[in-house]
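Entry 14: structure prediction run for Blue (type 1) copper domain-containing protein. Input pasted below.
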Amino acid sequence: MYKIISCTWKRRPWRFVPLCLLALSLALLFASCGGAGTAYSSGSIGNTAAATTTPDTAAQANSSDNSYRVGSGQQATSSASNTTGATSTVAVKMINQSAGSFGFSPTTLTIARGTTVVWTNATDVPHTVTSDDGKTFDSGINTPINAGATFKFTFTKTGKFSYHCQIHPTMVGSIIVK
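Run finished. Output tokens:
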């Protein structure tokens, strides 16, 4: 009276299509996040008139006169005038945190006007350093800061400057300039 139909791979292969699509989607999602072994090219990021380099280095200036990127082991100095007369440099690291997330260390930094902040990528994935207004400073999404590379910005105005990583939006920090 009733006929039992078996569900085997041979008779209904279409039943596995959604599962295969889900697996493929997850694989592409994880691959797009980057990871160990992912290669990125830093390339040129703009006009080099605002930075001077030491011999055998390749610092490139960003669109702002007082920010520039330096590859691992390279040195550069800004030609922008310093309004305070005294110069200092402060370091911020991009770090791995618990559960596979990333962050800036320190998260909040208080500095004097004229101080240069150097962000160093201490992780194995690329990051950006972008002011929340998107205009004050931006390392650039098209040429992210690769492992071991740095991004520098000299703060010449007072105020609070919040920033984030465009690739990892939960990576946030702030610079307070007095």
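Notes: The chain is about 10% helix and 30% strand. Will compare against the previous run tomorrow.
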